[in-house]
Amino acid sequence: MQEGCRIVWKMFIIRVDMRFRSSISSKVLVCDVKIVDISHNQCYNRINYRSQLRPKVRRIAVKLNSRRTILVGLAFLSICTFWQMYDSVMTLILTDTFKLNETFAGAIMAADNVLALFLLPFFGALSDKTHTKFGRRMPFIVGGTAAAAVLMNLIPLLDDRYAANPSPATLVIFIVVLGLLLVAMGTYRSPAVALMPDVTPKPLRSRANAIINLMGAVGGILYLGVAAVLYPNSKTAGLDHVNYQPLFIVVSVLMAVSVIVLYFTTNEPKLAAAEKEYEAEHPEQQLVEEEPDGSEELPKEVKRSLVMLLNSIALWYIGYNGVTTWWTTYVGRVMGQGLGGASTCLLVATGGAIVSYIPVGQLASKIGRKKTIQGGVILLAACFASAYFLTTHYQNINAVMFVVFALVGLAWAAINVNSLPMVVEMCRGSDIGKFTGYYYTFSMAAQVVTPIVAGSLMRAIDYRVLFPYAATFVALSFVTMCFVRHGDTKAEAKKGLEAFEDMDS
Known about the structure:
Blueprint: H1 2-23, E1 31-33, H2 40-44, H3 49-52, E2 57-59, H4 66-72, H5 74-97, H6 102-109, H7 111-129, H8 138-152, H9 154-164, H10 168-198, H11 205-230, H12 233-236, H13 245-265, H14 268-281, E3 289-290, E4 296-297, H15 300-335, H16 339-367, H17 369-393, H18 399-424, H19 432-460, H20 466-481
Antiparallel strand pairs: 1-2, 3-4
């Protein structure tokens, strides 16, 4: 009797497996079913068969399209190439050509972040509501890049003009052009970043964001490599003025080519429609709650997590951006190194990030986004503390410093890969642009404050205060992350017969 019952149950399982394959063949899902034995009593208790029968099932519900994600990441490559150059060169132009002190230079460097506080949420939300045959995000990406590529090449021309013949008129024109350039960049940053979650299922967004950040790092590497080749210490040492026009031309071409390739290879409307279909089939992944009037609202506990996460983002950006903004100037003042030496260190950090992005995304899918971020925060704070001792005790950049900067890249990868997916995890698909705007509001608010505060502290106390300042704020972000309870979804397959629960949907 018992053996006969086993035969019946085996036949049942095989039949279900066949129905499952048939019903979802269009979704290309695969199930491997292990047959298990059950007791005599369990044969008659079919009501509770789900809890009593636990075969091992391997199911791949969704798979990340790496090629498509790389193409989507071209927009972020364009953005990161520009901002890497902006942070490295603009402080030199402001302090060396226009002779501004660190406080005023920091204030101007913060201007892009002030604009971003308003522009990024606005254009993120606006792109959510935009509907064209080219998609929601693509018009902003293409238009913003085109305007930025033209305006940015006016910056070195005005820099050279002022160096040759200083005049208030040239300074005014420079500030106006710089403001327009920052507006152009602000129009497409949120739409470009929102494009990834638009076309990627929630469980895969950490892995996808790893690729996106990898593309951004490639953009940074390209700039740093060009800067190191065009402006080594041997060519810039002793010069009263450096011509940055070749550098700006190369970067603008890279930006334009990246977006052109993105436009002709990515069908945004088609991909976004496929993601909406997936989202409709998996309502369990939504954290929003529907109100009686039909509107959707985040539960209070999710709101608390979101607030603490956004505060964490602000804190680690205060520390990290303080270093990236002032590093080039810091190296010159403290260590006597020029743009080439500073760029080499940043190149090593970017290289460390590049080799870490994919493994970090995979790690987050196993242990969770929150734990991965917290590990990155601890490592980043330790690296900044180490950099303080290395840069104050040695006048030359050495191998140990390269190791520290490589670890900085690893730490930042762990943080950056997972923070945005945690934010957008808490929203519905139609609000991705708005929540991306939230992310950038807090990150940019931090970057408004830190250039001014760090610059003022360095001027009032000593340039050597930079790394203790950065390490302190990064450490504080660990505390706030402890209170984040949501946004940590992992891509896990259902186990046992639970995998068959929605086979008819």
